[in-house]
């Protein structure tokens, strides 16, 4: 056990973890960042993917100048999608230049002690820290509809499990879902030589419009300003003022989280889709199982018809649903002490949970701060708010005597 007490341990080195680290370190805090930079983007998004977020809304955040995406790639314009590879290189550059001392290991367990927390790393090291920031991203929240649960692993995967889709060449693959992830996975499957079908409950696919980088003042006045999440006054509010979103009544905010940037394909995907992807719209899977090494499934159409089908493989591109019980690195006693908002932790205006010193950022903060927390664009606001409070706490909470780890998670009070 290393007996020295650090200020903050950040779990995860994606856009949120890295941005929070940059701001916290700039405030002179002792920070350890645990995780491999941009790991999720490297291994859990399909090769060849293009970012849907605009370049100006794809920045990691640092108080030091010169570290935004556009600083690194001047001239990259609106409506010019960023290739995944380019964004990963940008994130890796940020990790190297804007953050100190990232440790490419995992956090395996976090428990409360007094003061603060003990985090156990995959190296076996136990780290004592006054505060912990959980910035673990979306991976563990991958959602597969219950109707597909009867299928074995070789016939059913979630889109999060794929980076290289070439393993599906010459195979029939049914992609379930109607959003960007489903549509882009299907297009990339077709380009990799597979025979993809998109199966969606919706009767029609939704497509985002081609962005107008410089619309007329009349259009701006009517349609509202362009913001990180799109155009329009309300979108601007959710995108640029998450503190206001947090102050809304809970039901309103949940509706906004659900409906903002709902399932829709990017404009540049539409033409690539051509005739290479079969579409089955207005169909809902009601049951699935294995038959002679293939997946068979039945669907009900929006007109009430029933279809029986077979395919070589099903990819569920059915999104991510945050759930505190899936954050298994948190000790169950710690999880039980968290006040929840729709299976996510309820957060203070500084992203602190009901357990003092335990912070959450990214998707798990969306229930409190709204839809922008699902996107890279929210990392700047989150990083500044969290770092500000960590620095304040550091000033007001001088390290106390460290208790032996055998007494951890006893005598800790909730806020
Ligand atoms: C297919 C797809 C396309 C997307 N496209 C866009 C887009 O164009 N624009 C956009 O803004 N958003 C996009 N998103 C959403 C995007 O995932 C989030 O905006 C972004 O990843 C949030 O950053 P993050 O740091 O919270 O999460 P992540 O980038 O997932 O980073 C979290 C990191 O924590 C690590 N981690 C988890 N557990 C541990 C542990 N116990 N110990 C150490 N490390 C751990 C993970 O390995 C991961 O590297 C997309 C998502 C998907 C699935």
What's the structural blueprint in terms of helices and strands?
Layout: E1 5-11, H1 15-26, E2 31-34, H2 39-43, H3 69-72, H4 84-97, E3 102-103, E4 107-112, E5 117-121, E6 126-134, E7 156-158, E8 172-176, H5 180-191, E9 195-200, H6 217-223, E10 226-227, E11 230-231, H7 233-240, H8 242-247, H9 250-259, H10 267-273, E12 278-281, E13 283-291, E14 294-301, E15 306-311, E16 313-316, H11 332-336, E17 340-341, E18 344-345, E19 358-360, H12 366-369, H13 379-396
Parallel strand pairs: 1-2, 1-6, 2-3, 6-19, 7-16, 8-9, 8-16, 9-12
Antiparallel strand pairs: 4-5, 5-6, 10-11, 13-14, 14-15, 17-18
Helix pairs in contact: 1-13
Would you give an account of this structure?
By secondary structure, the chain is an alpha/beta fold. The protein has 2 domains: 5-141 and 320-407, FAD/NAD(P)-binding domain (3-Layer(bba) Sandwich); 146-207 and 264-316, FAD/NAD(P)-binding domain (3-Layer(bba) Sandwich), CATH 3.50.50.60. Helices cover 27% and strands 21% of the residues. The chain contains 13 helices and 19 strands. The chain has helices at residues 15-26, 39-43, 69-72, 84-97, 180-191, 217-223, 233-240, 242-247, 250-259, 267-273, 332-336, 366-369, 379-396, and strands spanning 5-11, 31-34, 102-103, 107-112, 117-121, 126-134, 156-158, 172-176, 195-200, 226-227, 230-231, 278-281, 283-291, 294-301, 306-311, 313-316, 340-341, 344-345, 358-360. The strands form 5 sheets. Strands 1, 2, 3, 4, 5, 6 and 19 form a 7-stranded mixed β-sheet that branches. A 5-stranded parallel β-sheet has the order 7-16-8-9-12, covered by helices on one side. The chain has a 3-stranded antiparallel β-sheet with strand order 13-14-15, with no helix packed on it. Helix 1 (15-26) packs across helix 13 (379-396). The two termini are 28 Å apart. Flavin-adenine dinucleotide is lined by residues 11-17, 34-35, 39-41, 45, 51-53, 106-107, 135-138, 181, 329, 362, 375-377.
């Amino acid at each position: 056990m290393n007996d020295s007490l650090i200020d903050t341990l950040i779990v995860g080195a994606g856009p949120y973890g890295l941005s929070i680290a940059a701001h916290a370190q700039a405030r002179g805090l002792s920070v350890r960042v645990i995780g491999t930079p941009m790991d999720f983007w490297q291994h859990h998004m399909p090769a060849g993917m293009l970012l849907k977020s605009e370049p100006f809304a794809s920045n990691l955040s640092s108080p030091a100048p010169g570290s935004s995406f556009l600083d690194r790639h001047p001239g990259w314009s609106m409506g010019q999608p960023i290739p995944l590879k380019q964004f990963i290189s940008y994130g890796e550059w940020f990790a190297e230049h804007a953050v100190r001392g990232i440790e490419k290991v995992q956090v395996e367990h976090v428990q409360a002690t007094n003061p603060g927390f003990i985090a156990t790393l995959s190296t076996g090291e136990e780290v004592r820290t006054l505060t912990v920031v959980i910035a673990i991203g979306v991976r563990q929240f991958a959602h597969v509809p219950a109707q597909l649960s009867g299928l074995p692993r070789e016939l059913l995967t979630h889109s999060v499990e794929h980076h290289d889709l070439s393993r599906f060449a010459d195979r029939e693959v049914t992609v379930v879902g109607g959003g960007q992830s489903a549509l882009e996975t299907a297009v990339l499957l077709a380009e990799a030589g597979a025979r993809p079908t998109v199966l969606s409950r919706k009767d029609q696919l939704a497509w985002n419009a081609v962005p107008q980088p410089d619309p007329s003042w009349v259009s701006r006045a009517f349609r509202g300003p362009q913001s990180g999440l799109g155009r329009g006054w309300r979108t601007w509010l959710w995108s640029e003022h998450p503190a206001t979103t947090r102050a809304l009544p809970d039901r309103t905010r949940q509706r906004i989280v659900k409906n903002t940037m709902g399932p829709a394909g990017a404009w540049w995907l539409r033409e690539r889709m051509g005739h290479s992807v079969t579409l089955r719209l207005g169909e809902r899977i009601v049951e699935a199982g294995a038959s002679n090494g293939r997946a068979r499934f039945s669907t009900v159409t929006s007109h009430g018809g029933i279809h029986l089908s077979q395919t070589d493989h099903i990819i569920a591109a059915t999104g991510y649903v945050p759930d505190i019980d899936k954050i298994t690195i948190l000790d169950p006693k710690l999880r039980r002490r968290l006040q929840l908002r729709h299976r996510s932790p309820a957060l203070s205006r500084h992203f602190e949970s009901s357990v003092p010193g335990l912070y959450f950022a990214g998707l798990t903060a969306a229930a409190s701060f709204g839809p922008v927390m699902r996107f890279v664009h929210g990392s700047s606001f989150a990083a500044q708010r969290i770092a500000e409070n960590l620095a304040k706490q550091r000033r007001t909470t001088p390290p106390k005597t460290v208790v032996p780890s055998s007494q951890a998670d006893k005598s800790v009070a909730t806020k």
